[in-house]
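S.,

As promised, the zinc ion run. Input:
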Amino acid sequence: MGNRIQIFDTTLRDGEQVPGCKLNMEQKVEIAIALEDLGVDVIEAGFPISSPGDFHAVEAVCRAVTNPTVCALSRAVQKDIEVAGQAIRYAKRGRIHTGIGTSDSHIYQKLKTTPERILEQAVWAVKLARNYTDDIEFYAEDAGRTDNAFLARVIEAVIAAGATVVNIPDTTGYCLPEDYGRKIKYLVDHVKGIECATISTHCHNDLGLATANSIAGILNGAGQIECTINGIGERAGNTSLEEVVMIMRQHPDLGLLTEINTPLLCSMSSLVSQMMGMPVQPNKAIVGSNAFAHSSGIHQDGVIKSRETYEIIDPKEVGAHESKIVLTARSGRAALKFRANRLGYQMDQELLNLIYTDFLNVADQKKEVFDTDIHVLMEKHSISV
Ligand code: KIV
Ligand code: ZN
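Predicted complex:
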């Protein structure tokens, strides 16, 4: 038995906030169905008060999926909560995600109020949301920069008011993994009733630490990770779903389990990238086009002898087709021979040495040597398949 971690996907909400990534209702439904197949536990489908289109999209997602909980975002504002409650009324399992800023910067500069009023509003919002569903998630916006003692007071109060999940967002991506982990542990140790709620991580990637922070949160007592496909989201993005899931899988010693059907990760990544018109960086962990590509001679020689020498994940496990041996001017004879063999050409060492000299000349002219170039090289040396 392991510790089952809930995967809360917010591609359709935090991810869709990215400029240029706006989706229409049909696209949101198609992605939601794919997320259900992928095996996520919760789909945050949108922010219903933000526009009529988003309201209808959340409704449509509720009708389209069966297993995942469908979550609607709201501020701790009456109209937001009422509209979110309406939007999820057809969900088999519906959740309202409501919350308010708790850091000094949010309290005094953004909301121009006091900590006591924040506490009252948080409790009031959770109670109001309970009129629509029993599944209420509360977010303490900018929890990453919130004083731990005040955060604990707010979290204790919202749990007493009926929150079932408490989200501790590092909204600005400020925390270091140790600090974020300590924050979660502080809540575990100091909040009365914390055992009645699931603690959730929601980490932004402004310092490139979103994945590390989420894992630190889980290791310190959180039970849910909020994340997006390809790590998209506000500014530098959110925790990437594929990264946290594969970390848990690659480190079974941690005893952390998810229900994610990992061979669907690459196709899920492509679907989101295409629909949002948001290319995936080639070196993106797990789903980038270079994630299983080897181009230096030393690495290629190792991978050809045994894949594990330079790969910790079998590409099939994440739905990537295979390890790629890319031919460049940094490639060695082993790689050239491997690629030529795959095209059906055989050659002894002497011939290989001869062709390799020509190969380097071609490779120095081009960024990459393709199969068509190999055919030309072979023809030049009168080698046929
Ligand atoms: O980053 C954040 O704090 C959020 C909340 C709305 C959960 O996205
Ligand atoms: Zn966010």
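The domain at 3-276 is CATH 3.20.20.70 (TIM Barrel). The chain has two domains: 3-276, 293-380.

- D.
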